[in-house]
Structures are given as structure tokens and as C-alpha cells.
Protein 1
Amino acid sequence: MSVATQEALKAFYLVTLTLSAFACISLLLSPRGERRIKVALLLLCLVISLLPFNAYLMLAFKQSSSLLIYISATITWLYGPIVYFALREISLRPLSYKQLALHLVPFVAVIAVQIFMLPEHNIYKPRALGLDFYHYLFIQVFAYLGLCLYWLYNNASIATRAIKHYKNSTFYWFAYLVIFLSGLMLYDLLLINQLRAGASFDTALITTISSVMCIFVCSISLFALYQPAIFDYLSTANNEDDVTSEAGDFNQHTQPIELRKVELRQVELSTEASAELQNRLAELVTQHQLHLDPDLSMRKLSALLGITTHQLSELLNVHMETSFYEYFNLLRHEAAKTLITKHQSLSINDIAYQSGFNNRNSFYKVFKEHTGMTPANYRKTQLAK
């Protein structure tokens, strides 16, 4: 390798490490964002930057750290848990710290084996310690990839909502992280398999690719944290469709109460039955957070309550003097107010998503109808108290 190439690589690694350091410091010190998410992204950024850091040490000082090499060799074990963590965040069913720690056990265990039991050997050497760690890694990678596909199959509408209607939110950037890490797991498996078979690779090429990966992950982490306004233009293409769709829903469900009463064929529910159903509905909302379900419909809700859609319409329109749309958007509005008040670190985009609104236009419309001000102005009034 020529001196000019070495100097160019050193400069590139330094740029990579500078971005990584900025991302880690931002995730550690910035008041923005949820702590749970920042901890997971910080761990990912730290670990994925170890390979370019070790490569820089080799070029600049002609020495490397065994510990860095060991951790870098086991990083693939980390991708699956982070992918699952991100999917749970997108579906608004986040992992607790304890649950995340349990998913990280294989990653930590493999590092411990490499450091304390195989310090001078490649952990992926066939039958190391009588075990084939590559096969275990293969099983783990495809288990998480299968889990990812299963989640997408069952939560397609949630993924669509995050990508299409909440561009530049934390959950939008998480979707890109999931796609990237899923591909990276397959890339690492292929690379490790080739190394096991005795293939040789250009070390500089591998570390350069790893640096590009590090830059991507750190950039996504920063975008998820700061949500730069420059990316907000991405959502403008959908604004007109969202408004049209929202207007249609609004007209359908917000007719005057008297008119909706007339349209009912007949009153089927007694006062006692209505009171019992209202209690059951409140319990369902509390237990299952129905307002967060983007697929919730009259048919689905009536099935959960064990009544017909006509009876559900009567319950909402006549006995509760509201509509399906009004009832659940009020719940979402109250959830948004709570998030704004208790979580000053969350962006308005993230609050709208976590409150269950299908798009930001719906969120702004409903919020202003009920409070008479925008979410940002409401936050300012709460801060001023």
C-alpha cells in the first residue's frame, strides 16, 4: 500500500471517527429524544465504530488492540437485538431495559468467550471449543430476520404510517435502520463464511466498507435525534392526500348528533346495557390502547365488544353523543397533551406518532380544534406555567 493511500485511508477513518464521536456525545448529552432509544443507539454507534478505530491505530501507530478486534468480530450478534428493538419502537410496544438486556446476552457471552477462552483464535474457526459459533450466529441472524418479516406481515399498516406519513420522525429513521442492519447481518454472514473457507480479502477494503457502514449508522442516529428541518420537505408530497383523506373521515363521522340519531334504524340498547358497554369500552381502551391501532375500525371494535356494528353506532352516537372518529381522536388528543406536558424532549412529530394519529395533518387539525392552538404553542404555554 502506497504512502498516499495510507494517508487517504487515515483521513477517511478520522472523518468516520469524528462523526461517530459527535453522534455518541450527542446521544449521551442531548436533552432531545427518549433515553431508552438514545441508550440503544449509543451502544450501536460505539460498537460499530471500533473497526475503523482499530484500522486507524494500525495505520497510524502500527499497533492494534486485541479487545477492539474481539468486539469487532462479534458485532454481528448485536444487529439482531437492535433490529428487534427498533421494530418494537415503531409499533409503540417498546422493550424495557431488562428485556433489551436479555436480548443482548448472546452478544456479551460471545465477547466473553472470545476474550477469556479463545484469546489467540478466531471464534468462528470450525469447532472452536468443540462448538461451531458460526452455526449459532447463523441461527440467531435468521431468527431475527424471521421475526422482522413476521412483524412486517402483522404490522404493515404501522410501518406504512411511519414511512409515508411521519417522514423525519424517529420512527421513520428507525425504519431505515432496520432495513440497513438486516442487510448488514446477511453481509457479515457471507463474509464470515468466506473467511472460514480460507478466502482472503483486502483488509483495507473491508475496513473502508465498515467505515461507510459506521457513517451511515451514526448519521441515521443523528437524524433520529435531531430530525433536521431540511428533511421536512419529504412530507409535503403527501400533505394534499392526507388532507383529502382526513376531510372525508371528518365529514363521515362528525355529522350533527340529531341527524345521526335519525339515521339509526332503531334503538336496540337499554340504558343498563349501554352503561355496561361503555365500561367495557373504557376497559378495552385502557388495556389494549386501542387508539394506537391504525387498523381500528367499527367492525373490529364491535367484534371486540361482542356487539354488531349497528349497536356500536347506537352506543357511540345516541348514548355517548359522539362518533367513532370523535371518540378515538379525543383519546389521541389527550394522549398527545400528556406527552407534550411530561416529555419535553420529544419532538412534535414523535408525539403525533406516539399518540396514534394516522398522519400529522390529522393531528394538527384535531389538536387545534380541542385546544384552540397548535401543539408547539401549547407546549410553550405549558413551559411558561
Note: Residues 110 and 116 are 10 Å apart (CA to CA).
Protein 2
Amino acid sequence: MLEYSDKIHNKIGNVGRAGIVLGIVLIIVGITIGTISIVFGANALSANKHLID
């Protein structure tokens, strides 16, 4: 019975680690996409000003 408990404990630990790593990766990707979106939006506004003037 202890073998199964140890195996379950190890699998749950691995799932927890994978969840944390996935969360960190998603945060980094989200920040990157947000930054790129802001930069492209600023460029679009700048181009829009030149078209109007």
C-alpha cells in the first residue's frame, strides 16, 4: 500500500510543478504579447496623425 501512496505523491508533485511552470510561461507570453500590442498601437496612432496633418 505504501508503494501506491508514494507513486501518487510523486505524480501529484510532478503535476504541481508542471502547473507552476506552465503558469510562469503563460505570464511571460502574456506580457510579451501585451507589450507588442502597445507598441503596434502607438505606431498606428503615430501614422494616423501623419495622415490627418
Note: Residues 2-52 form the longest helix (51 residues).
